[in-house]
Amino acid sequence: MAEQHAAGAEGIHPTNDPGTPGGSVDPQSGADSAAPTRRARRGGSRKSQKATGGWGAVREIAIVVVLALLIAFVAKTFLIRGYYIPSGSMEQTLELDDRIFVNVLGARTGHIDRGDIVVFDDTQGWLPEAPAARTNPVRQGLEFVGLLPDSSQQALVKRVIGVGGDHVTCCDASGKVSVNGKALDEPYLYPGAAPSDFPFDVTVPEGKFFVLGDHRNASADSRYHIETGTQFVSEQDVVGTAFVTAWPLDRFRFLHNPEDVFADVPAPARP
Questions:
Q1: CATH 2.10.109.10 domain locations along the chain
Q2: 45 has catalytic annotation
Q3: Pick the catalytic residue: 24, 29, 33, 89?
Q4: pLDDT at residue 132 tops 50
Q5: 182 is catalytic
Q6: Which positions, given as ranges, span the membrane (predicted)?
């Protein structure tokens, strides 16, 4: 390295060998004294490339991880979320431990209709208070980006029967639920389950939904909260509409709104 410093400080000196500019010839061996310098430079260059390559790999991995987290956060916030079914209230449409995906975008744009299966946050205390979950910064981060469910918020899944302005009653002479005077034939009901085991009569406020489970005698849905005045689900509490059962694989299927059930329901009477 002394030779490199000298050359840099004092300029390039002529040598005995015109074919080796910037170097000198050992008078005893005739070897080119610049060769070790060039080998040292090449060795240093290789070490530098290895170091740069290692840092580049780390940087690429970091970029991939950040992008993956960003995509997960955007998907969770604006597109889809995953949930599992913890009860039999929606049997047989959804069964215990089914994994479903929910369309978040549809809820945010206000496209929720009668017959949709919705997931909504339990802001009105329909569920018993859950025990405090153990958490840590890693879990909190994964919850934030949507890779784990939010342990601080409980959610429910039900089917929308009435929307804002609808008059929903049960039961007519045949024991069916009626919406705006039209009795519903509900093929999604759990086999043998009645449309309702007790009567009710409600008018849904604007911006709210009246929701029921498909397994009516195993679902603590809107009917059970009429007395407390918390029977309606707010639009703001709806996370999204369920559109696919993804797991287990033998139950994989897309969930469709049974529009024919509500096709003949008249528009709600407006005051």
A1: 81-262
A2: no
A3: 89
A4: yes
A5: no
A6: 61-80
* pLDDT score for 154: 77
Q: How confident is the model at residue 57 (pLDDT cuts 50, 70, 90)?
A: confident
Is the predicted pLDDT of residue 47 greater than 70, yes or no? no
Catalytic residue among 76, 87, 158, 222: 158
Fold of 81-262: Umud Fragment, subunit A (2.10.109)
Q: Which of 57-71, 81-95, 103-117, 159-173 reaches the highest mean pLDDT?
A: 159-173
Quick one: tokens of 29? Answer: 């061996």
